[in-house]
Amino acid sequence: MKRVEYAEANKQTKHPAKVVVAIVQDENGKFNPITLEWFMKTSIKPPMFAISIGHTRYSHDCLQQNRFFNLCFPSKEMIEATKLWGTKSGRDMDKLAAAGHDWFAGRLAKYPVIQVAKATFECQVVTQVKSGDHTIFVGEVKHCWLDEEKEVVTVKDLM
Ligand SMILES: Cc1cc2nc3c(=O)[nH]c(=O)nc-3n(C[C@H](O)[C@H](O)[C@H](O)COP(=O)(O)O)c2cc1C
Predict the structure, then answer these.
(1) Superfamily of domain 15-158
(2) Which residues line ligand 1 (CB under 6 A)?
(3) In terms of pTM, does the model score above 0.85?
(4) Is the dihedral of CA 5, 7, 11, 15 positive or negative?
């Protein structure tokens, strides 16, 4: 056991993590998907998810304006889209349209539910906490969608 810098401890403790996509909406009504590794369940009753979003992300601006997000668990068919949504910004393009996946409007706030995804949880933001250079947005799950046949994407699929 030795004392190390944070960067080294962080690198060595990474394990195959799940990856999700939060779909948010900007002030002009454009939907914007952002790929996220930093998310967690935070409550059973009611069900809640927390997502951590960097202050510089366009999605951060969106969530300050419109207090909903659809938490999408991408399927293997969505590997390229998940890469795109994690490397390009909605400030510069329409990321949802660029990926070309079909979607339908969900029930909570009519945010996109992607047809080929493994699952989507429609969430309403109930609270937020600043965490260094990120903000943790906590969303209460209102509706869920699932395709039992699909396999989820992990961070390894994106490398
Ligand atoms: C695998 C992966 C995981 C990521 N996880 C997060 C995350 O948890 N939080 C975050 O703010 N950005 C994360 N990012 C970076 C954003 O997805 C990326 O900066 C994105 O282009 C921001 O888009 P936006 O400007 O449209 O919001 C991740 C990217 C990848 C590829």
Answers:
(1) Electron Transport, Fmn-binding Protein; Chain A (2.30.110.10)
(2) 19, 32, 34-38, 52-54, 57-59, 86-91, 134, 155, 158
(3) yes
(4) positive
